[in-house]
Amino acid sequence: MPAGTLEITIVEGRRLKDKDTVGQSDPFVELYTQKNCKQRTRAIPNTHDPVWNEVFTFNIHPEDDTIHFDVYDSDVGDKDLIGRGKVKLSKVFDDGTFDDWVKLPAHLGLSVHGEIHVIMNFTPS
């Protein structure tokens, strides 16, 4: 895989599964290529359809092949997993860009817990 800089915009989410018993979720996204180097959006209170419009930058190394998106419901002192999505970086390397909705499959992939709109731009070094 090529090395370079990956700019990621977490635009919005839609139809995110509710994890709270009372009220709606307060969703945020953790994104990473390697688990020890995560970045995250702010939590958006009380919604299934959050709008983040937050931009993140990652230095991509040759061993990086996937970007992960873990969506959580923020709770006091805790977080509940809503869903996990991922995109193979080869989809971004081909055109230099990616603009699509990333599904958040449930455990075993039997259903979907919503999706997030992600825009990515890759600049090789």
Number of helices: 1
Main pleated-sheet profile: 4 strands, antiparallel
Helix content range: under 10%
* The first-level CATH class name: Mainly Beta
Proportion of beta-strand residues: over 45%
Net shape: elongated
Compute the number of structural domains. Answer: 1
- In spatial order, strands of the major sheet run 4-1-8-7
How does the helix and strand content classify structurally? mainly beta
Q: What kind of assembly state do the chains in view correspond to?
A: single chain
Give the mean pLDDT: 92
The ordered string of helix (H) and strand (E) elements is EEEEEEHEE
Question: What low-confidence regions span 5 or more consecutive residues with pLDDT below 50?
Answer: none
| Euclidean distance between termini CA atoms | 12 Å
Q: What is the CATH topology?
A: Immunoglobulin-like
DSSP strand count: 8
Give me the Rg, rounded.
Answer: 14 Å
GO molecular function: calcium ion binding
Domain C2: 1-102
GO cellular component, one term: membrane
Protein name: C2 domain-containing protein
Notes on the protein architecture:
The protein is mainly beta and 125 residues long. The protein has one domain (4-124): C2 domain (Immunoglobulin-like). The chain is built from 1 helix and 8 strands, in the order ββββββαββ. The strands form 2 sheets. A 4-stranded antiparallel β-sheet has the order 4-1-8-7. The protein is elongated and about 50 Å long. The N and C termini lie close together (12 Å). The mean pLDDT is 92. It holds the Pfam family C2.
